[in-house]
Amino acid sequence: GSWSSQRHWHEGLDEFMVMLDGEAVLVEDEGETILRAGDCASWPKDVPNGHHLVNRSDQPCVFIVVDNRRGEGDCHYPDVDLHYDAASGTYRREDS
């Protein structure tokens, strides 16, 4: 039942994920995909596709995420109406 995070997407930050062990469900705007050891996923910067992983199995899962962090971009959390502003280091509601 654990989540990797709230569903989110980044401005100015590419992400690449590799599932190392176990199984998790990738939840994106387009739907859900089961990922198992050896599967990969990527999210290009500036594409508003909220994503996260959910472990719905009864076993642990292990994954690694790498990014091209050359500075930090804004991050959006569409399911909870939240926006992280990297310039100020603050969070605010998207509808504010």
Explained architecture:
The strands form 3 sheets. This protein has a 4-stranded antiparallel sheet with strand order 1-8-9-10, with no helix packed on it. A 3-stranded antiparallel sheet has the order 5-2-7, with no helix packed on it. Strands 4-3-6 form a 3-stranded antiparallel sheet, with no helix packed on it. The model has no long low-confidence stretch (mean pLDDT 93). The chain is mainly beta and 96 residues long. Helix content is 0%, strand content 48%. The radius of gyration is 14 Å and the shape is globular.
Low-confidence stretches: none
Adjacency order of strands in the biggest sheet: 1-8-9-10
C-alpha termini separation = 31 Å
Beta-strand level of the residues, as a percent range? over 45%
- Our count of helices gives 0
Query: What integer is the average pLDDT?
Result: 93
**Total DSSP E strands:** 10
| SSE-based structural type | mainly beta
Largest sheet: 4 strands, antiparallel
Overall shape: globular
Tell me roughly what share of residues is in helical segments: under 10%
Rg computed from alpha carbons, rounded to a whole number of angstroms: 14 Å
